[in-house]
Amino acid sequence: GAQATEVETVVIGSGPGGYVAAIRAAELGQKVTLIESGEIGGVCLNVGCIPSKALINIGHHYRDEMTEQPFGLHATGVSLDWAATQDWKQKKVVERLTGGVAMLLKKHHVDIVRGTASFNDNEQINVIEGDNHELFQFKNCIIATGSRPVQIPGFEFANRIVDSTGALSLPAVPKHLIVIGGGVIGSELGGLYLNLGAKVTIIEGLDHVLNGFDAELIKPVLDDFKAQGGEIYTSAKAKSAVQTDNGVAVTFEADGKEQTVTGDYLLVSVGRRPNTDELGLNNTNVKLDEHGLIQVDDRMATTAAHIYAIGDVTAGPALAHKASFQAKIAAAAISGDPQARDLHYSLPAVAYTNYELATTGETPESIKEKNLDAKAYKFPFAANGRALAMNAGTGFIRLISDNQSKALIGAQIVGPGASDLISELSLAIENGLTTEDISLTIHPHPTLGEAIMDAAELADGLPIHI
Ligand code: FAD
Is 188 annotated among the ligand-binding residues? Predict the structure, then answer.
């Protein structure tokens, strides 16, 4: 057989899991080989987090310009050159960032091998690129092959039925976008096209959209979505999709009756499945769970010696920052520093809906389920000067603190800046800070962050602004 190249550490996949693992392992003294079958940066940088946020940003600008504002600014002659928007997203955002990652990998002397990897056994992978293949014998391996959209029978991706990748590069802003699956991705992209002037219909199987965020939190998002003319059907079952030359008709059952809605595109966003089925894992001791996710311990070690797994191929929420955090644990573990962390305590999650949603740590439901002696305190953005100055006084910050220790154990935000504000609260939780620690920290005025201090003062029983 062909001679295998001996390498120290192999990382498979270059998403926010793989590229971070490669750089950190190199920093800790490993010689790293990174295998990538697609684009450097993975889903997140190429067709996920980054391009979606770029378009969502444009959606906000467009909506602001097109809506009558209460502060006397009248915009006329606003138009959207969608081709230019797409070009900007690709060249100035995605390619700049992925180019930056490629440079960082080079700086850390990471060897990049293009091709599709699969395992021959517990110590060897085969990498296929076109007609060529190459064998690598490794000391350590980190699997970071990510996930792909789930396809459902009868709704296969083609032409006018698109996955999230297709929805980020539509040839034109749709007149009517139908979305099956109102999770975070479906709701973010639905909100984006609503802002760009499309009619949007979301069809969701559960009795609520944005699973993972509670009803009180998502209410401002839903109210806004509906006020803009968006339609949401919950407890609905999509039955069939029929494509025509210029559209697609979707039949679904909701409220006990069958209905058909016609749009120009259908986005199917019903979840993602791990890329573990074509890796040859049956040739190794790596064990999968019933969802095809790789079983790992708290050091990200699989059931096979020297093979680790991180990111969307492991259990837990499919989030880029989870993948990157696990990457650092795995890189430390293979470098002899068995640093293991409890990832799931204050792992924040954000939805970039029209009012941003963010959560970290415990929630009102989780404290009930766990029977914790804790209480929630809410401070509205309507009482925050900066929010009013931004014409963004909708939403609130909710802190959850332990009644005995007063430690912050959870927080949720809906409203302006939620995605950035949540980090302060994760920091507080990770470090066992009390609400008094937060209220005794000077927050600059006027800022959205003051609402965190105000919520903490409320929890201390010494509120000023409410
Ligand atoms: P991926 O990013 O999926 O990367 C895996 C890489 O492995 C890919 O490049 C793939 O080509 C490669 N690969 C696969 N198999 C092989 C093989 N056999 N050989 C070689 N290479 C292989 N998360 C957030 O935290 N915030 C967000 O705002 C957010 N927005 C999102 C928006 C959209 C539209 C989507 C689809 C996802 C979003 N996510 C977001 C989720 C986020 O993108 C993923 O959680 C993240 O990319 C997972 O990282 P990963 O490193 O595990 O895998």
Answer: yes
Whether the per-residue pLDDT at 446 is higher than 90: the answer is yes
Strands 176-180 and 199-203: parallel
Q: What's the confidence (pLDDT) of residue 153? A: 95
According to the annotation, is 184 in a ligand binding site? Answer: yes
* DSSP calls for 115-170: SEEEESSSSEEEEEETTEEEEEEEEEEEE---EEEPP-TT---BTTEE-HHHHTT-
Q: Could you tell me if 55 and 352 are in contact, meaning their C-beta atoms sit under 8 angstroms apart?
A: no
Cβ of residue 38 lying under 6 Å from some atom of ligand 1: yes
In the block, residue with structure tokens 């909506």: 63
Whole-number Å distance between alpha carbons of 128 and 113: 10
Position 1 scores a pLDDT of: 57
Cβ atoms within 10 Å of 254's Cβ, excluding its own: 16
The pLDDT of 6-16, averaged and rounded, is 98
Q: pLDDT band at 325, cuts 50/70/90?
A: very high
Tell me which residue of 172, 201, 175 sits closest to 261, measured CA to CA: 201
Q: Do 63 and 224 contact (CB within 8 A), yes or no?
A: no
pLDDT of 269 > 80? The answer is yes
On average, the pLDDT of the chain sits at: 97
Pocket test for ligand 1, best of 11, 145, 210 (most atoms within 8 A of CB): 145
Query: What is the torsional sign of CA 94, 96, 102, 108?
Result: negative
The yes-or-no verdict on residue 127 having pLDDT over 90 is yes
3-state secondary structure of 434: strand
β-strands 396-402, 374-380 pairing: antiparallel
133 CA to centre of ligand 1 in angstroms: 24
User: Over the range 362-378, which residues count as b (16 or more CB within 10 Å of their CB) and which as e?
Assistant: bbbeebeeeeeebebbe
Q: State in Å: Cα 90 to ligand 1 middle.
A: 17
DSSP state of 313: G
> What count of other Cβ atoms lies within 10 Å of the Cβ of residue 91?
10
Which atom of ligand 1 is nearest to 165's Cα? 34
Sole residue written with tokens 């201090």: 453
> Which residue's structure tokens are 């839903």?
222
The reported pLDDT for the residue numbered 340 is 72
